Amino acid sequence: MKINLSNINHSYNGKAILQDLTLKLEHAEAIAIIGPSGAGKSTLLRLLSKIEDPDSGDIHVNDIDVIKTEAKEYYKKIGFVFQSHNLFPHLTALRNITLVLEKVHNKTPEDAKRLAIDLLTQFELVEHMNKKPSQLSGGQAQRVSIIRSLAISPEVMFLDEPTSALDPILTREVLRTVLKLREKNMRFVIVTHELGFAKKVADYILFMEDGRIVEHGPVSILEKPQTDSLKKFVEFVME
Ligand SMILES: Nc1ncnc2c1ncn2[C@@H]1O[C@H](COP(=O)(O)OP(=O)(O)OP(=O)(O)O)[C@@H](O)[C@H]1O
Ligand SMILES: [Mg+2]
User: Is the minimum distance from the CB of 134 to ligand 1 under 6 angstroms?
Assistant: First the structure.
């Protein structure tokens, strides 16, 4: 996937959060964004996925000019997974997936159902397909959200700490699901505080601090940080 950010600035209530971010990546397949709380990781992910537009600057994802593209069109091409699942509460796991395929992607009900059941089977969730979100465990619900995003065959998926609302066991289940996305060659950008997982799943790391990308490169930068900031962060998280 290609990501091109040029001179991105973004503020909330007059306070600058992202400052002059510039980044050009041509070949990253799975990017992990790491960094301390408040660094601007979620903000950057919201801009990449056009939940918000920046105050100024340009964003290209692959060949899409994100700011110039209408949100509705862009959302057909990307997937987004939040910290906690955002399934429709009154619909079953299966219907949560087929609804989007039918309404947004114009699949016939039969095709939508076939595709959804195929994915639920691959991800070992098919036995839960008739349950509503309240009848699923947190990990299962989050995995259904991931599959719902995947079902539309997006160009890129954006995941913001998909395990932060889960206990360690459920976290493992969800991380396994993300590893499976990688095996399927899905391109994604994930915000995660699990450095061990970032090393395993990503091929590229962005380290953010105070609204800036302080260091970025292949995962090996976690072993050999070039900046004091990343070095301190890795030591702190690994403690
Ligand atoms: N909608 C908003 N309105 C006002 N301030 C915001 C808003 N969203 C984020 N901020 C501020 O922007 C800064 C960056 O927040 P962001 O959520 O991007 O950080 P983060 O790196 O994702 O942190 P965490 O690891 O805790 O999730 C923080 O100081 C936060 O308070
Ligand atoms: Mg965040």
Answer: no
- The protein residue whose alpha carbon is closest to atom 4 in ligand 1 is 12
pLDDT grade for 237, boundaries at 50, 70 and 90: confident
Mutate to test the pocket of ligand 1, among 8, 15, 17, 237 (most ligand atoms within 8 A of CB): 17
Assign 165 a pLDDT band (cuts: 50, 70, 90).
confident
Atom of ligand 1 nearest to the CA of 193: 25
Q: Is 40 in the pocket of ligand 1 (CB under 6 A)?
A: yes
User: What's the token pair of residue 125?
Assistant: 């969730």
**Contact between 47 and 54 (Cβ < 8 Å):** yes
Specify the amino acid at residue 133: P
Both structure tokens of 97: 């997936």
> What separation in Å is there between the alpha carbon of 185 and the centre of ligand 1?
30
Q: Is 93's pLDDT higher than 90?
A: yes
Distance between CA atoms of 106 and 111, rounded to whole angstroms?
Answer: 10
Q: Give the phi and the psi of residue 217 in degrees, each rounded to 5.
A: 165, -175
Place of tokens 């998909």: 162
Is residue 61 classed as helix, strand or coil in its secondary structure? strand
**Which residue segments constitute the domains of the chain, with CATH numbers given?**
3-238 (3.40.50.300)
φ and ψ of 160, to 5 deg: -105, 105
**pLDDT band per the 50, 70, 90 thresholds, residue 121:** very high
pLDDT level of residue 84 (50, 70, 90 thresholds): confident
- pTM tops 0.85: yes
